[in-house]
Design goal:
The complex is a heterodimer of chains A (143) and B (69). Chain A is α+β, with helices and mostly antiparallel strands. Chain A is built from three helices and four strands, in the order βαββαβα. Chain B is mainly α. Chain B is 42% helix and 0% strand.
Amino acid sequence: MRIYELMYIVSPDLDQEELAQVAAKLERMTEDAGGQVLRLRSWGRRRLAYPIAKLREGHYHVAYLQLEPNAISGLRSRLALTEEVVRYLLIRAERIPPELEAEPSGEAYAPPEEEPEGESIPDEEDEDELDQEDDEIDETDEE
Amino acid sequence: MCAFCADRADTIDYKDVPTLRQYITARGKIKPRRKTAVCARHQRRLSAAIKRARHVALLPYTGEHARGS
């Protein structure tokens, strides 16, 4: 089992309840893949640096998952098929970052929180093959 | 000495937008090492972090002004 960091963005049109449903979906997908959601944090609504799927804002979430490496590709394809998730980034993390370590498990949907400033180091290896799954989701190529 | 070495940073977090912003130009390009004096190891990690941040729209692929069309 390994720890992975997942960042996902959902449409800003969804309300709190719908966001919780997305979180529940993620939990189900992870459990179906034989893993578990260790932590889930919301960053709240945030402006996107560029439009994705015609959206200019999104609800950002960061989750830490524990999964077998061979379950990752399956989870990726399910995430890609999850319509509410407009973009995601799934990378390897060595561990849960210390500031989330102490908190209770990610079962409950965490309330939005300000964007972490400065250090939040979720130790990720950088020449990681799980990196940038550019072909998983359509990049917004304009021009 | 490179800014990340000075901080004894092992990894560079793609979520740390304020830091990453210092290493992109107004047009959104990753600044070259010769401008930022980041060491080779950290420049590699930095560019990977910037690319991840771009993917999740924390940073632009191109300058904010260069949009429109």
